[in-house]
Specification:
about 260 residues, alpha/beta, Metallo-beta-lactamase, Chain A, 7-stranded mixed sheet, 6 helices, 14 strands
């Protein structure tokens, strides 16, 4: 299993428009954060988790050549508004690409991208996809992908667990609470990637402290904190977290 952080930032991205803070003006490339997305290659499958507004830049910057499936955590703008660029992959691959999400997410996608289902467009003119309501685990090739229901403020959204060849990764980029029913799926993980928005509390995201507490409870072999704002400078946050939790950066690739 190989995974690449295509984006590790919050909804504004970093640098944030109109901001001259230490992080937004930093020359450290690890402080430049696109909106959250993850690319996983395993079991012969190439899978994208969320298509943020930066999606085109992400796939060009980090060498994404193929997409066999898309999984969406929820239909907020910072997680879906690069979706139209999936059309380049469906055109190259000459096939409809399956797009999975909760029934509510898929309902919203059909509204926000209503032109996708219209047959009048040429094959390369719109994303050729098949929208699929995901209400339980699904298998793609040799991969098992299990939805992980979590709270994002008052919204019930999804993270995902990816199992392939005995390796286990869980990805929850937006989260303010994990229901007790979800925790059994977070046991014995090789990798846990979790929302840790900022040092201060937030109504719809884990704070840095809350994320640390949850990652310690989960106890994965490798832990990563993502969806970061400009309130966290990369080097300083990594020193704070020590060796047990990694602050990822855009383009970081990990091979299990």
């Amino acid at each position: 299993m190989k995974f690449t952080f295509l984006g590790t930032g919050t909804s504004h991205g970093i640098p944030m428009i109109g901001c001259s803070c230490e992080v937004c003006t930093s020359n450290n490339e690890k402080n430049k954060r696109r909106r959250c997305s993850l690319y996983v290659v395993a079991g012969g499958q190439h899978i994208v988790f969320d298509t943020p507004p930066d999606f085109r830049d992400q796939v060009l910057s980090f060498g994404v050549k193929r997409v066999d499936a898309v999984f969406l955590t929820h239909p907020h703008a910072d997680h879906i508004y690069g979706f139209d660029d999936i059309r380049r992959f469906s055109d190259l691959q000459k096939t409809h690409i399956p797009v999975y999400g909760s029934p509510e997410t898929i309902r919203q996608m059909r509204i926000k991208f209503d032109y996708v289902d219209k047959a009048s467009h040429s094959f390369g003119g719109v994303p050729r996809v098949t929208f699929i309501n995901q209400t339980g685990p699904i298998t793609l090739g040799d991969i098992l992908i299990t939805p992980l229901p979590v709270w994002h403020g008052k919204d019930f959204i999804l993270g995902f667990r990816i199992d392939s060849n005995g390796q286990r990764l869980a990805y929850i980029p937006d989260c303010s609470a994990i229901p007790k029913e979800t925790f059994p799926y977070l046991e014995n993980l090789d990798v846990m990637i979790l929302d840790g928005l900022r040092p201060e509390n937030h109504p719809t995201h884990f704070s840095t402290k809350e994320c640390i507490e949850q990652l310690k409870r989960i106890g994965a072999k490798q832990s990563f904190m993502t969806h970061l704002t400009h309130n966290s400078e990369h080097h300083k946050l990594q020193i704070q977290l020590g060796e047990m939790i990694t602050v990822p950066w855009d383009g970081l690739q990990v091979v299990l």
